[in-house]
Amino acid sequence: MKSLEELYNYYFCSRGAGHTELMKKGSENYDKKFILVVGSSARPYIKNENLNATIFTLNDIASYKLRGLKYPIIFDNSAMMDLFIEIADEKKYLKDENMLLNSKIELLNTINSVLRDIVEIDTNRKNKKTWLKRLSNWIQRVVNDNNL
């Protein structure tokens, strides 16, 4: 992920350096069909001056509109920035989800440990049916309270 962070920082800090101009000049000299991916916010400002270019946004790509096509692809600076933001959001979501799952695993391990201790201590208990029913109710409450 370090390389993605560095690329994001580079693109963010080098706005106005000529990324779009380079892309335009390079694509003007390409005489075959190609795909140009632009950021959603940039789409209204992009004019399709090159008849060989098929313009897509990241939303178009997410809608599977590239399927069946087999052309070279080029990304505008705005699309790269949108991609980096999407990746960062997904990374945060996965990190948060991982923390939540780890806490649930820890809770289950604690429950398991407590149950082993209880069973070991109460193996000679006379009223096991009532005890097991109360234990079952307690486990169900813990599971429900923690969305397990």
Helix content: 55-70%
Order of helices and strands: HHEEHEHH
Largest sheet: 3 strands, parallel
- Structural class, from secondary structure content? mainly alpha
Low-confidence stretches: none
Summarize the structure.
By secondary structure, the protein is mainly alpha-helical. Helices cover 61% and strands 9% of the residues.
Chart the SSEs and their pairings.
Elements: H1 2-13, H2 19-28, E1 34-38, E2 53-57, H3 58-62, E3 73-75, H4 77-121, H5 128-145
Parallel strand pairs: 1-2, 1-3
Protein model, in words:
By secondary structure, the chain is mainly alpha-helical. It has a domain at 2-85. 61% of the residues lie in helices and 9% in strands. It contains 5 helices and 3 strands, in the order ααββαβαα. The protein has helices spanning 2-13, 19-28, 58-62, 77-121, 128-145, and strands at residues 34-38, 53-57, 73-75. Strands 2-1-3 form a 3-stranded parallel sheet. Helix 1 (2-13) runs antiparallel to helix 4 (77-121). It is elongated and about 85 Å long.
